[in-house]
Amino acid sequence: MSIEASKPHYLTLSEALVAEAQDLGLDVSDAAEKGLARAIQAEKERRWKIDNAETIKASNDYVAKHGLPLAKYRMF
Fold first, then answer.
1. How far apart are CA 14 and CA 27, in angstroms?
2. Does 38 fall in a domain?
3. Is residue 60 in some structural domain?
4. Domain span including residue 54
5. What predicted TM-score, i.e. pTM, was given to this entire model?
6. In angstroms, rounded to a whole number, what is the distance separating the alpha carbons of residues 37 and 12?
7. Within a domain: residue 74?
8. Residue 43, Cβ neighbours under 10 Å: how many?
9. What is the pLDDT of residues 48-69, one digit of tens each?
10. Distance between CA atoms of 44 and 54, rounded to whole angstroms?
């Protein structure tokens, strides 16, 4: 993950989780950053699906009715 300059941010985290992570030798800051990046990506995907639901449905309906475009040229 390439993040530009970092600056401290103060987060409220469960003491038990932080202690367990430290006992396991995990970098808590790195784990939090990666978890936040995953959460951001998941939310962007969720919103994209909502924003494009009508187009996705139209495409699926077309394929259901007409089959895949260019299917006759498929080699498999």
1. 15
2. yes
3. yes
4. 15-64
5. 0.72
6. 17
7. no
8. 10
9. 999 999 999 999 999 999 999 8
10. 17
